[in-house]
Design a protein that fits this description.
Blueprint: E1 4-8, E2 11-15, E3 20-26, E4 29-34, E5 39-42, H1 46-53, E6 58-60, E7 65-68, E8 72-75, E9 82-85, E10 90-92, H2 98-108
Antiparallel strand pairs: 1-2, 3-4, 3-7, 4-5, 6-7, 8-9, 9-10
């Protein structure tokens, strides 16, 4: 996947989408969680980041979290509104986005129902 270049107050930042597991926004600060375990803060709202990453394999789960779908390890069957990421983080998807999440996951993975 190609790198993304985003403008910041102090210059342009290169983001490598494949390295980002998920993003969580607090007010206008977005925390990027990388597969290396590192984090980074950038001054973007969740809506701004969603527009940048919407066609890069990312999905907005709720009002503050965007997840790289390639790092979804498990969708819990008893609570289908929660997923577990490869780093162990549990993320909840809002009910109105659940069907869209399943469609997005089906595009990325061959999902088998039990």
């Amino acid at each position: 996947m190609k790198n993304i270049y985003i403008p910041l107050q102090d210059g342009i930042r290169t983001l490598i989408p494949d390295e980002i597991i998920y993003l969580e926004t607090y007010n206008n600060i977005t925390v990027l969680y990388y597969k290396s375990g590192e984090t980074e803060n950038i001054e973007y709202t969740v809506g701004d980041i969603e527009m940048i990453l919407f066609d890069k394999g990312f999905f907005r789960f709720n009002y503050k979290c965007i997840v790289n779908l390639k790092y979804v390890q498990m969708v819990l069957p008893d609570n289908s509104s929660k997923v577990i990421l490869e780093n162990g983080k549990e993320i909840f998807v809002t009910q109105n986005r659940r069907a869209e999440l399943y469609k997005s996951l089906e595009k990325m993975y061959e999902m088998v129902s039990c």
